[in-house]
Structures are given as C-alpha cells and as structure tokens.
Amino acid sequence: MSKEVSRRDFLKISSGTAAVIGTSCSIPGTLGALGNKAIQGSDKFIRSYCEMCSSRCQIEGRVVDGKNVFIQGNKYVKSMGGSVCARGASGHSQLYDPQRIVSPLIRTGKRGEGKWREASWEEALDLVANKLGKIKEEFGAKSVLFSAKTGEHHGHMLTFANAFGSPNIFSHTSSCPVSYKIAFPHTTGSGMKRDFSKSKYILNFGHNLFEGISVSSTKKLAKTAASEKSKLVVLDPRFSIVASKADEWHPVKPGTDLAFVLSLIHVWLRDEKYDKKFVAESTIGIEELKASVSDATPEWQEKITGIKASVAENVADELYKAAPKCIIDWGHKTTTGFGEYQRTRAIIIANALMGNIEREGGIFFAKKAKTVNKLAGMNIAPDITNPDKHIKGSKTPRIDGAGEVGENIFVSRKHGVLMDIPEAVLAKKPYAIKGLFMIRHNPLITVADTEKMRKAMHEMDFIVSSDVYMSESAEMADVILPEATYLERDEGISNKSSKAPAYMIRNKIVEPINGTKWSGEIFRTLAKKLGIDSEYKWTTVNEFRTAQAKGNFELLKTLSVKGYASFGIPPVLAREPKYVQAFVDKYPGAADKVNAEGVFGLSKLKTPSGKIELFSQKVEDAFPGHGVPSTKHSTEVAHPGYPYILTSGKTAIHTNGHTQNVPYLNMLMSDNPLWVNPVTAKKEGIKHGDLIYLENETAKEKATVFVTEAIRPDTLFAYMGFGRTSSKLERTAGVGTSLSKLLPLVKGPVCSTMITNVGVKIVKV
Amino acid sequence: MSKKYRMIHDENLCIGCQACSVACRSENNISDDVFRLQVRMETKGTFPDLKMNFRRQSCVMCEDAPCVTVCPTGSSFQTLDGIVHVDENTCVSCKYCVVACPYDARYMDPIIKAIDKCDFCSENRLAKGQLPACVSICPTDALVFGDMNDKDSEVYVKSNTHYTLFPKAHLGTKPKLAFVPNKKGVNYE
C-alpha cells in the first residue's frame, strides 16, 4: 500500500462498517448488507449507562470524526472515575459490527433453517400482532411465553404481557442470581450491599468481581485487596483473578461452601464469639441455629470441603476480631450446587452474627429516597414511580407454578423458572404453549439442557426474538425484531441508590442505525396494534420518563445532562454513629429518630417478624427441614458420581451468551478451552491442545484441553458463553464448549436455581 | 523545564481485564488482530501454591532506545520529551526495530504495512492535556502517568511511596514504564 495514505487517514475511511464487511454482505438484514452508514451523534460526551453486561455502569460516550464512538466512565459519578471495563469500552464494536441485525426479518424456510427475508417494521410488527392475537383468541393469552434478560426491556415486556393477559413471564434470574434474590427477603427482608472500601476483612466465596466486573465495586475491592491493612480470603475451586489477589486462597471442593460457613457459625457459637447484643435485639432463631450447627465442627467441614479444620478455626477467629468491619460475601451466582440457597442464607446469617449490618466496612441496605426522606422528616431526595404499575399481572396459574404453592412458591411471578419451560411445553402440562417472545435473551446458550429447550421451541407455533445479533434463540424465531443497542436508546430512569439515593438514565449517544428500536417502542406499538393499550399512560420515551419522575423537570434535566443524579445527602449507615451524626447535622429533623446509642438502629425489616430471621418459619412451613441452614443440607452438584465436576464462570472479556461475536472482544478471547490440572491430564492421558469430549447423562460436548495448575485435580472449568451454533455469528460459530448443554434440568431446593456445577467424565476422541 | 514522563503499572491493582487494551484500540484505531498494549497474565507455581503475575506488554518508552539507534531511515525517532515515535511515511518496514526491541513491543501494521507501537497517546491525548487512554480508563486505577519533574504529581508521589522496578532494567535502556511488583500469592522464586 502507498505510504502516502497515512495510517490514521486510512483508518478514518475504513473504521466502522466499510472495511470489515467481508462475507457478511450476503446475509440479509445485517449491517454489513447495508453498506457504509454514516454515524450520527454528538461529538460532545453524552452520559448514559452500559449494557455490555448487566452491571449497568455509568458511562459517557462521544462520536469521534463521525466514525467511532469513544466510551469511558461517566466523570460525574465519583465511584466510576472515568473507568470502564473492556466490554464497556467495546460498545461501538457491537454497534458497528457488520454481523449485527439491523432490519426486521421474517422466516422463509423451516424453523431454525436460517432462511430469511427482510421486512419493514410495519410488516413485521403487524405480523407479530396478528399472530399473537390469533393465538390468544384460540388458545388463550396464557399460551404465550415471554422471556428477557433483566433490565428495562424486562419491565416493558412485563407491562405488555400483563396487558396481553399471559401470566408466563420469565427472566434470566432463575439461571443466575435467584439464590440471593430469595435468601435475602427470607433473612433480612430485602437485598443488601457491601462496603468494600472500608472493610478490614473480606471472606469471598468466589464472587469474582475481577472478572464479572461492576466497575465501582471492582475498583473498591481491588484497592482493599491491594492494601496491607486489610485481608482478603477467597474460597474457589480454581485460581481465579480474585483468588490471585487474595491473602489466602483455599481451593474448596465445588459446591461445598455451605459446610465451611456452617463451621464458622459453629465456632462462633461454641466460643460465644459473636455480637450477642445485636443478635438478641435484632434477630430471631438463635436457638434453632445453635441446634442446627452443633455438629458443624471444623473437622466435619474438612471432610466435605477439603479445607483444613485449622483454617476454619483461624478464619472464624480473624473475622470476629475484624468485626464489624468485615464482609462475608454472598457473591452473585457462585457455588452452584444443591446447597446454593442454604449457603447464601448461612452467609447472610454469618454477617448478622458479626454484627456488621449497617456498619462501616460491613454490609448495608440501599437508602432510597423514601428512606432518607422519612429519616430527615422532609423531602431531601425526589422519589420516582413506575408509570405502568397499575397494569396488573394475570392471576392465571403459570406453567412453572412460580409464586404458587409448590416447589417454586418463593419464585417471583415476574421472573419464573426457565428450567421448567421445556418439559411443560413438551408435555403440554399444565396446558399447551403456542407462542414465545424473547427479548435480549438467548436461552439456547444460557439455560440448562439446551437441546431440550430447542425441542420445545420446535413445538411452538410462533416465536419472536428481539436481539442485536442472530443468536441461537433468534435463529429459531419466525420474526426477528432488531433491537437498538444501548448506545442508540433513550430509556427510563433507574434507581442507583447506595448509602444515599441516586438515579441514572440511559441517554442516546448515537442515532439508531437503520431505525432499530428500543423495547419500550416495540412493546408499546404492539400493544396499540393489538388494541390492549388503553391503560398505558405514555406513548413516547419522554412521556414515560416524565411520568417516572412525577413531572420533576429538575431531576429530568440533571439526568439528561449528567446521566446521573445524586442529591448531596451524606451517606447513611443506620448503626454507625459518625454517619448518623453527619446526617443529623445536615438534617436536624432526623434528631428524634436517633436512639440512646446515637444511631438510628435497624428499622422494622420486611420479614414476617420484622427482624433478621436466622430461623424462618415461612421457609420451614413451605420446605420442612429448610427453616435454618444445617449439616443435613445437600452440597451435591448435578449428576453426582462422575469422576469430575465441571464448573463455569465469568471472564472480564465476555458476558453470558451475548458478546462472543463482538469484534473487539472476540479478538481478545475467541475460545473457552477446558482447564485441566496436570495431574488429571496425566491420569487421563491427555495433553494441552487435545480435543476431547465431556460426557454425562444429559449430553456429550467437545472441549479443547488447557492444562493449568490453577484448578483442583477433581474439577474442570471453562468460561461460559461459547460453543455457539448460529452460523450468522461468523467469528464464533463452532468454536469452544457449550457448558449449558451438559446441565440437566434440575433445580436447587427452595429457590429453584439452575445448577451449573455438573458431574462429567472425559472421553478421548 | 522539559517533561520527564513516567507510567507506573501497579501489578497489585491490575486485574488483567484488558480494558486498557480496548481503550487503546478504540482511541488509536488499532488494526484488527494486532495490539499496542495488552496485559499478559502468567500463573506460576504448583497447585495449590500459586501466584499470578500481571505484566503490561507495550512499549516501555526507553530513554536509550535500541529501536531508534537501529532504524536506517530515521523514522523511529525520539522527541525532546523522550517519547519514541514512528513516522509511518518514512518507515520502510525493514523490521530492524522489531528485532532490536527487547520488549517485543513493535509490530507490523497489517493495513499500512508500517511499524506501529504505543506512543503514550501523544498526539491525540497528551497534546490536549489528557492522560493516555489506558490510564484514564483503567477500572482499578492500576496505571498512573505524569511528569516526574512535578513533585505534586500522582506519579511522583507513587514513585516515592511504592517499591517500583523497571522491566529488564539490566539492559540499561532506561524505560519510562515502571511497575509495582506483585506481592500476592505464594512466593515461588
């Protein structure tokens, strides 16, 4: 090439879409097929929040030279400080990926065959409305399933499904965070947060914030971990990044963390080393707990976890000494065996015994506007509302029985149990399912027993997928409605409260390419076409936002400029005197809520007793024997009895089943080889780079061997989200291992979580 | 007074997430499948006595730069502020510099067919008073950059409060990139 074209000049004309179109030109509906599109957007920073994963970090982005979007952390958010992760910085690589779907598509071949024709939005939405209307008329609204990744689109889907009349609404939750989403309400009434930056001692059960990044939490944990004044102890079967930053790493046997936590509780109760005053005042069930852990000795746990009894004694002692500036971290989705619910319950209980609730360096409840306004005795933070809350859900029984008496009683009817879908559909029990509407959801990669889910999809009459890519699940659809990426969307207000109230909003950084649409518009339009929109109080996103903000234009203005709004309110930790004092100094109206000890104390919790429930009668009634964590609870994984336990986890480069085809990220990680300890490799006669099969009763799946010391010899590991089959994901199709394929449709008790630790054997090719 | 730039990579804060690498790609329009910057992670030891090191792989901006000395056309050159650049218009892609670089920091750009490497975002950010993209974006603040002649700068303070080393210091190339060595994990050396 001529040197007269400078590198920078060349890239100016080539970046974005034109230079990298390649073979994608022929795929209808893709950005590549459209040719070079100019980028329209501001060259000044617009503040918004990310959606490359679900951490939703606050970002700012601007269009550079009309060709590129530079993304960094929102400078108005102190805890972000301009930072984003690799995925966040890759937002425009997804936006301008020639393999992205940007035109509505209608299936022309057999289901899943991959033959499509482009359609106008009008035609596609009319078709969806007509089909859904017909199914409703013939089989009832309940025969259409709706599923989404959590986020704002889940909210709009929920409203639409409610208006449509189907009770069968699902989200990603049962395949991921459901354990703590249920264990917290059972124990403390509502979810809690971790004060990583001020903690002196953190016990981590695989909460891998250094690979499953949430920037502000990751930053805090990284600094605390690097500090010589604090200690980080990590239990993880593999030497993850967070394990590598620990002061102590204990390679626990997968799924058995419950036994370790129970032994800590045993030691504290045995030695009477816990916050007795707090436990007496703020909890119920200590006697039941004492009885349930009486045999949970450090020696007992050693046989289960493989961690020496002396370690449990030592960690218990050090935590007690560090308390209340200590965190026993429940994580996100970790330790995914049958013991997951009780493990999470036990961890929350362990925190309560250390008396670290609402203390600096401990754990705390989010302080939303209502909470601080009540404390201050005046309005110091604006409240927001859900404009769709009056559009109530159908009372019809669901196919999974979520929220109804039975094994899924504690599961939210807004989120459901994904693992129950395939069998219900195939057996037509309790009733036939005819339609499926998925938005930003790819269950054929992220949910257990993908082949059975595929069979269930073949049973359906009509499937809609709204996605950015031709995902495996989108490939099964009749109609694909291309969703605008988060950089192209104006959306509603989200609560971001921590120790003080805060909100964030998604502001459009570039104009939607080829008229792709956001979920609110898609569902709102469909509701209108179906004639079920009489209860909607908004039409445009601005009307939606205004209704959320209850007409508070000052809040809307701040959010539009800064993408984020906080209100100068001092952070509140209700049991920490200096925090309480600072709050009272600023808002004297709070003085009458301060007790004799100079703190607000815990207000009445949302548990049946109003206190922290070490023993839960509600859980005991629904699941006899489960009211309090005990040594009787299983720590097995799915398909026990195989020689190895296959585990999975997050990487900082990819998200679930979503980003593997994004060019920038695919360049950094294009495969997920299987971690195998050298001892195991020798025993199995396999070596680095070998192609093998992993096999169990559910499936047989190929894997490439990666020999590493960083894993237990009885454990195997791979990052999730690979093993893609959609041919339209040209960079990633056919590469790597699908872990979900090997998971059976079993669920953890009480919370119905998907179990992702699974027994397998290694079979040589 | 001329600038005396230094960048410090704190291995204890770095989590190897590659945000720096992507920010660099985005800011500098790096061609596909080549990198000016990556963090390379290496696990050392035998299970369960392990350690993971995090090494920044990029140009270390030598004061005595072998790439400049060997360049037959003068397209590898150093400015007064000590930053080493490549003039892609005069580079004849002979790759002498690629071979001479002890840090393996240079590569052939597959599109322009000239040699490329990190330049601390000199033109596009430093000149505007901004930090290099990798420094500004790092989720854990593992990178610090600034002028060592400024005693109030973060980089000066960090240099004087942390134990820092220079990569392959024994070669005497005097890099401007320093690192705080990893303290965590089992000491295998």
Describe the structure.
The complex is a heterodimer of chains A (about 775) and B (about 190). By secondary structure, chain A is α/β, with parallel strands linked by helices. Among the domains of chain A are: about 105-180 and about 385-485 and about 515-545, Rossmann fold; about 190-365, Dimethylsulfoxide Reductase, domain 2; about 645-765, Barwin-like endoglucanases, CATH 2.40.40. Chain A has a 7-stranded mixed β-sheet, with helices on one face. A 6-stranded mixed β-sheet of chain A has the order 23-25-24-27-22-26. A 4-stranded parallel β-sheet of chain A has the order 11-10-9-13. With about 190 residues, chain B is α+β, with helices and mostly antiparallel strands. Chain B has a single domain, classed as Alpha-Beta Plaits, CATH 3.30.70.20. Chain B is about 15% helix and about 25% strand. Chain B has 5 helices and 9 strands. Chain B has a 3-stranded mixed β-sheet. Chain B has a two-stranded antiparallel sheet with strand order 2-3. The radius of gyration of chain B is 17 Å and the shape is globular. Classes of the chains: A alpha/beta (about 775), B alpha+beta (about 190). Chains A and B meet through helix 1, strand 3, helix 3, helix 8 and helix 25 of A and helix 1, strand 2 and strand 3 of B.
